[in-house]
Fold this sequence. Notes:
By secondary structure, the protein is an alpha/beta fold. The chain folds into two domains: 8-88 and 197-277, HAD superfamily/HAD-like (Rossmann fold, 3-Layer(aba) Sandwich); 93-194, Hypothetical Protein, Haloacid Dehalogenase-like Hydrolase, Chain: A, domain 2 (2-Layer Sandwich), CATH 3.30.1240. The protein has helices spanning 27-38, 51-57, 61-64, 93-106, 127-135, 162-175, 199-209, 227-232, 244-247, 262-272, 274-277; strands at 8-12, 42-45, 69-71, 76-78, 85-86, 111-116, 119-122, 142-143, 155-159, 180-186, 189-194, 216-220, 235-239, 253-255. A hairpin with a 4-residue loop joins strand 3 (69-71) and strand 4 (76-78). Helix 1 (27-38) runs parallel beside helix 10 (262-272). The longest helix is centred in the middle third of the chain and has 14 residues, at 93-106. 42% of the residues are buried.
Amino acid sequence: xxxxxxxxxxxxxxxxxxxxxxxxxxxxxxxxxxxxxxxxxxxxxxxxxxxxxxxxxxxxxxxxxxxxxxxxxxxxxxxxxxxxxxxxxxxxxxxxxxxxxxxxxxxxxxxxxxxxxxxxxxxxxxxxxxxxxxxxxxxxxxxxxxxxxxxxxxxxxxxxxxxxxxxxxxxxxxxxxxxxxxxxxxxxxxxxxxxxxxxxxxxxxxxxxxxxxxxxxxxxxxxxxxxxxxxxxxxxxxxxxxxxxxxxxxxxxxxxxxxxxxxxxxxxxxxxxxxxxxx
Length: 279
């Protein structure tokens, strides 16, 4: 007898989706994921976080996921048990240096961190970056000029109040090369990624590498950095707290908020409508 969820994959964002507003796991989600996997389903995360950051809020992530996770907003996938990386891509180094210096010249007091081999690097300190250094002990911060940083950069994250980041966004809208894309992952975090390294591109890779031709992917997320992933999914899903842009995606499935257990809400939705989603 076929397991009822064997044709389904759930790919979940973490912040604002899997964890609650206090960055805590919701017990209802854990039970739902267990039930989903016991009945043949596959589950994994798609997050802007690196491994240390993920482990800080979801210490049992390697047990929850039975597929490699999409990490660093799509810069790579990772087997969370072995920590082996797959499909890793990087920012164009020369173009990045030029772009970041242009931002510094035009908006000099905005902080940035570069993700390099599961660590953070920053060329100078701002109050926001200094706060992160004090609180994100797993990040292994390096403070050094851009030119002294190791050259394999997964992505860059500008960290500041939203008003300041809107200035950066406006500058990028005028000057961004097609090699990059930009998105907010939070109101105080503006990300610059390689155009070929997004949650959406990695979601497509998951489907292409699946040995099950009937597989359907449900992708769930709440913020701007989830848009391309939801657009690439067979079934896009957003929690009640998702931003307005996500709710405009055609055929979006709505579930309860992250605080109420959005993943459990999605599993319940699939369970109640198996015939609909197996088409």
